[in-house]
UniProtKB/TrEMBL annotation:
The keyword Nucleus applies. It comes from Drosophila guanche. GO terms for molecular function: molecular adaptor activity; protein kinase binding. Residues 998-1100 form the Autophagy-related protein 11 C-terminal domain. GO terms for cellular component: Atg1/ULK1 kinase complex; cytosol; lysosome; nucleus; organelle membrane; phagophore assembly site membrane. Residues 227-239, 278-293 have a biased composition (Low complexity). InterPro entries: ATG11, Atg11_C, ATG17-like_dom. Residues 227-293 are annotated as: Disordered. Pfam families: ATG11, ATG17_like. The keyword Cytoplasm applies. This is RB1-inducible coiled-coil protein 1. The lineage of its organism: Eukaryota, Metazoa, Ecdysozoa, Arthropoda, Hexapoda. Its main location: cytoplasm. Residues 738-790, 902-929 form a coiled coil.
Length: 1112
């Protein structure tokens, strides 16, 4: 297999080894440069869909490179390779050889040389045909290559239009925000001053110690910022140590100088930096030293913090660049750029650039030229084969007499072949010129396409550059916008932190108290139920009390998770500090109203305390022994909790009693001072006892929980190890499956590509075959029409010929019936006249008989004419009805038609037989009438005449039967359809009249041909005024004038030649000196044999045979 690359500019197919397809496209271009001298940098490769082959991609990745779907190559240079020009030396040499062959004398060597020359011309015609087919195919490939270029330009145009649309959307959004951007840039210096007045709170100072990287994400891809950073790094590398002068010139120093102008407090802090700190700063980077030194100061503001990395000058430069960029990105420049881009897109969409008008019509004409060339090549082949066959026949015959005519015919055929060859070469030159013109047109259009695509590429680069600049300006403006919103955002963040800390503290305390109470109540309820169920389970009464085993679900018995622990340590004092320093932002520093939330958290606490006091007093009076343990429990539960108003359970009454008792213990009431002291002392003792008990219980619980946690930890580690091992196994299996799937996917992709290429090849082959079949169908239609016309002409001609033959036969029969009687009468009249025996009465009787015979003959002639006209009409209708089916039927259908024709001819013969019988009857009636009219003595010569007519009639019937049998044998053959010919060769022959009629009846008379040795029937033709041979064919055979004497024949009004005339072989003129052409000579027919034939000139293109005497 080969890799095919088609050079569209020149129309040339380049083939390479298939190994090149396994390498990159760049290597393919280098191979083209190495083998064909075409610069690789100027080569552009496309596939049929318009996709361009990229350098790093493998050639086999593209579905192109076959002979039917090659890779299309174009050159971006202005120069075009010149096509190969065919020379015309071969034509001159061939013409010279043909001229030389004309001068050769008639001989076998001349015949051989002419046959070789014809074979040579045939080979040249085949080569020219192959060349023309290749040229036409290359022009079709050029058209496909141009379609690929147009598709590629359309794809590029669509992509460029899409990018231009995105750019327009971005620029329109920029123009809508342009005024706000300008306002931000005008207030940028005021924003910086305001930032310098905002201090960083002490609670935030620890976070401000690190370097400032707030703008790195926006400035990492910024060309200006990166360039400035590189310049700063180069300056830092050049400085071996940071001295006082360099420190004074640093951006931080500039910031400090700017800050000194704003407040005196900052000056004192700046002067507090010692010389030792400056020396330590030289050993680290400038940004780290500056940020740490700024973080150690207590009056650090936001501007100093964001400028700790040297961003102040960058921010100022960024602001200036944004102002310049907004001035550049104006609406006028945008409109001008839009007009230029729309103009180049409009040029790319022009129809005259994409479409080559008339190319399809030209290719159709080239296909017609190719068809004509193919037809002429076939004619050349037939002519060459004919010359070879003639050469073989001449070698076999060894007859020098035919060489002059044969050589003359060969010269004519060679001249025809030379003319055909010249026409073929003219068609080839026309096709080659068409290809050259198409190549020049494509080269000019390709230059136009390259110019348009280069223009789009230039505008695309401009759009990309402007888009990037616009995005960079928007990133810079976003930084400036953040700086503008920084004061408000800063104070809002401080207020939000303080609000969250207040909420989280109150919520955590309330939720903790609530969880402790709920956990204790839930545990107490569970304990009581279990104690009761322990004694009640198994008793027979449990049948009456179902559902005693239900337990209350846990609810809000766990401490809430900690949150807001990473918030900076800010409080109300920080808000008051900022409000005092930034009075214009005091409105944004106000905390929201937190009283409803706080009251919600502490509302139940106040109410519960009052209820506890009252309950404590009541229980102290009623159940003093139970107060101490319950107070201990309640005090332990109330250490860090408060009541809530939302806890309503089944034990709410008990919970309120307990909370009331606890709060009554912890609240001082009005009463006796001694009772208060005793109660306080008792409460403290109870609390101490309860704390010790709870400590022991909590220690045991902690140990149990610790053991459980260790067990769970071990179990978790084991599960984790197992999970990790399973994960590693799964990962390895997944990687293995992934590799297998990738390999299978790649294999399937390769198979898909191969199948796609095969399908495309088959589709193209099918299209080519379809196109070829369509052309063949058109050729077959043309051949069909030509064959129909030819068959119609042939059938009409045969029909006319057959009608003429029938007419001649009927005339012959009429003449035969009339002429022999006249001749016999003459023979019989001679003795009677010499004897002088006639009388007046016999003369009158003879006149009556002649008149009667004349009338009967006229009636018979009229009947024959009517029969002939009817037969002609029926034959014409029959052939007209069979013309159309005959053109499309096969040979079997022709055989059926031939059978029908034979049946029709048989019917006509039957009619003729009936007419003959009728004539026989008429003759018999006439004979009887004559016998009645005349007597035996006076009309004896009439009896002899009737006998002679009867014998002649019998002889004619025998000849008619022989002719009928021979005709049936010849017409049953299928070859009879091909026996007719348009040529009218002249055949002559010498015939001798046979005296023995019995011997002639035993031999067959040839009616289908006139060859040497054939026995033929000669009769006088009134139409041509010549003696002619009776034949059932298109060819007319005339008897030579010198052979008439041997047949005892003579034209009218001419002296009868002597019977001893010798054979004549010299042709005489055909014109006869007969005064009356309607006069019939006596005798007017004869039977003879053809001994020789020759060609002669006549009034029409006809044939005159030479007849000589046979055995007499």
């Amino acid at each position: 297999m080969m890799l095919y690359v088609f050079h569209v500019d020149v129309g040339r197919m380049l083939s390479f080894d298939m190994n090149v397809a396994l390498q990159s496209v760049e290597n393919l271009k280098e191979t083209i440069q190495k083998l064909h001298g075409i610069p690789a940098v100027k080569i552009v490769l496309l596939e049929s869909g318009g996709e361009m082959l990229t350098h790093s991609t493998q050639v086999s990745c593209y579905s192109a490179g076959t002979d039917t779907n090659p890779i299309y190559m174009f050159l971006t240079s202005d120069e075009r390779l010149a096509p190969t020009i065919q020379n015309s030396d071969a034509d001159a040499e061939l013409r010279r050889q043909v001229d030389e062959s004309r001068t050769l004398p008639p001989s076998l060597e001349a015949v051989r040389q002419r046959a070789q020359l014809a074979q040579h011309m045939r080979e040249l015609a085949r080569k020219e045909e192959a060349l023309c087919e290749r040229l036409v195919h290359e022009q079709h490939l050029q058209q496909q290559g141009w379609s690929a270029v147009v598709a590629n330009m359309e794809d590029l145009t669509n992509e460029f239009r899409e990018r231009f649309h995105n750019f327009c959307l971005a620029f329109d959004r920029h123009l809508q925000k342009r005024d706000s951007y300008l306002e931000l840039l005008r207030n940028f210096s005021d924003d910086l001053k305001q930032l310098s007045r905002i201090p960083i709170l002490p609670g935030l100072m620890a976070l401000a110690e690190a370097d400032f990287h707030g703008f790195d994400e926006l400035l990492d891809n910024d060309d200006v910022f990166v360039q400035q950073q590189k310049q700063q790094e180069q300056q830092q590398q050049q400085q071996g140590a940071l001295n006082e002068s360099s420190q004074a010139d640093s951006p931080n120093k500039k910031l400090k100088m700017g800050d000194e102008k704003e407040g005196t407090g900052e000056e004192g802090s700046d002067q507090g930096v010692t010389e030792g700190d400056q020396q330590a700063a030289t050993r680290v980077s400038q940004t780290s030293t500056t940020s740490s030194s700024l973080a150690r100061r207590h009056n650090l503001n936001l501007l100093q913090w964001i400028s700790s990395k040297g961003n102040h000058s960058a921010l100022q430069l960024m602001s200036d660049e944004c102002i310049q960029g907004l001035d550049i990105f104006s609406a006028d420049i945008y409109e001008k750029l839009k007009e230029e881009v729309q103009h180049i897109i409009k040029m790319a969409n022009q129809g005259d650039v994409k479409e080559i008008k008339g190319l399809s019509d030209r290719l159709c004409r080239l296909e017609e030229f190719k068809f004509k060339i193919k037809k002429m090549v076939q004619e050349q082949k037939e002519q060459a084969l004919a010359l070879q066959q003639n050469e073989a026949r001449a070698l076999n015959l060894r007859d020098n007499s035919v060489l002059p005519d044969l050589c003359l015919s060969h010269c004519t055929q060679l001249q025809v072949m030379l003319e055909n060859h010249i026409k073929i070469r003219d068609f080839c030159r026309c096709i080659a010129n068409s290809k050259d013109e198409l190549g020049k047109n494509l080269h000019t259009r390709l230059r136009r396409i390259v110019w348009i695509e280069n223009g789009m590429s230039e505008f695309d680069n401009r759009l990309l550059f402007n888009h990037r600049c616009l995005r960079r300006a928007e990133r810079h403006i976003s930084i400036i916008e953040q700086i503008h919103r920084a004061p408000c955002t800063y104070v809002e963040a401080v207020a939000e932190v303080v609000r969250r800390k207040i909420f989280s503290d109150e919520f955590r305390q309330w939720a903790t108290r609530l969880s402790v109470d709920f956990d204790r109540i839930h545990s107490e309820e569970l304990r009581r139920r279990r104690e009761f169920n322990a004694s009640f389970d198994g008793h027979f009464l449990n049948i009456l009390f179902p559902g005693m085993g239900d337990m209350p679900p846990a609810f809000a018995n766990e401490h809430p998770l900690s949150f807001d622990t990473r918030l900076p340590p800010l409080n109300r004092s920080d808000i008051e500090l900022l409000s005092s320093q930034l009075p214009e932002l005091s409105a944004q520093l106000q905390l929201p109203n937190m009283r409803p939330v706080i009251e919600f958290f502490v509302h139940r606490s106040g109410l519960a305390r009052e209820q506890e006091q009252e309950q404590e007093q009541e229980e102290s009076e009623q159940e003093p022994p139970l107060l101490a343990p319950r107070l201990a429990e309640l005090q332990a539960a109330a250490v860090g909790t408060s009541a809530t108003s939302d806890c309503e359970t089944d034990t709410e009454t008990e919970f309120e009693k307990l909370m009331t008792a606890v709060k009554s213990v912890s609240t001082t009431t009005s009463g006796i001072v001694g009772e208060q002291i005793a109660r306080s002392t008792n409460t403290e003792e109870l609390l101490m006892l309860s704390a010790a008990t709870l400590t022991d219980e909590n220690g045991a619980s902690v140990q149990r929980m610790r053991g459980a946690i260790e067990d769970m930890s071990k179990l978790a580690r084991a599960c984790l190890a197992e999970a990790r091992s399973n994960q590693d196994t799964f990962r390895s299996d997944a990687l293995g499956y992934q590799d297998e799937f990738q390999s299978e996917l790649q294999l399937l992709r390769d198979k898909l590509k191969v199948l796609r290429m095969q399908c495309e090849d088959r589709e193209r082959q099918a299209q080519e075959q379809m196109e070829e079949m369509r052309l063949k169908l058109e050729l077959a239609e043309r051949d069909k029409l030509a064959a129909v016309a030819q068959a119609r002409e042939q059938l009409i001609h045969e029909h006319k010929t057959e009608l003429e033959s029938l007419r001649c036969r009927f005339k012959l029969m009429t003449s035969m019936e009339r002429s022999p009687s006249d001749s016999s009468l003459e023979k019989l009249e001679r003795p009677t006249s010499s004897a002088s025996v006639a009388s007046a009465t016999t003369m009158a009787t003879n006149v009556d008989v002649d008149q009667l015979l004349y009338q009967q003959r006229q009636e018979l002639l009229a009947q024959r004419e009517r029969a002939i006209s009817e037969a002609v009409q029926s034959e014409r209708s029959l052939w007209q009805s069979r013309l159309l089916p005959l053109n499309s039927e096969s040979v079997m259908a022709n055989v059926c038609i031939l059978k029908d024709m034979l049946a029709e001819k048989e019917r006509q013969l039957d009619q003729l037989r009936e007419q003959n019988q009728f004539l026989t009857q008429e003759t018999y009636q006439l004979k009887t009438r004559l016998e009645m009219i005349t007597n035996e003595d006076g009309n004896s010569w009439l009896k002899e005449k009737i006998d002679y007519l009867n014998r002649d009639k019998c002889r004619l019937e025998e000849e008619l039967n022989q002719e009928k049998s021979k005709r049936l044998e010849m017409e049953t053959s299928v070859a009879a359809m091909k026996s007719s010919s348009y040529d009218l060769p002249s055949i002559g022959g010498t015939l001798t009249r046979s005296k023995s009629t019995g011997g002639s009846s035993q031999r067959s008379i040839a009616l289908e041909g006139c060859s040497r040795g054939d026995l033929v029937f000669v009769v006088w033709s009134m139409r041509h005024a010549q003696f002619m041979v009776v034949q059932d064919s298109l060819t007319l055979y005339f008897v030579h004038g010198d052979s008439l004497a041997g047949l005892q024949l003579a034209p009218p009004n001419a002296l009868a030649p002597s019977s001893g005339t010798a054979d004549a072989s010299v042709a005489v003129p055909v014109h006869m000196a007969a005064a009356d052409l309607n006069q019939i000579p006596l005798p007017y027919y004869a039977i003879g044999r053809v001994v020789d034939k020759e060609y002669c000139q006549a009034r029409k293109v006809s044939i005159i045979p030479l007849l000589s005497q046979d055995d007499r």
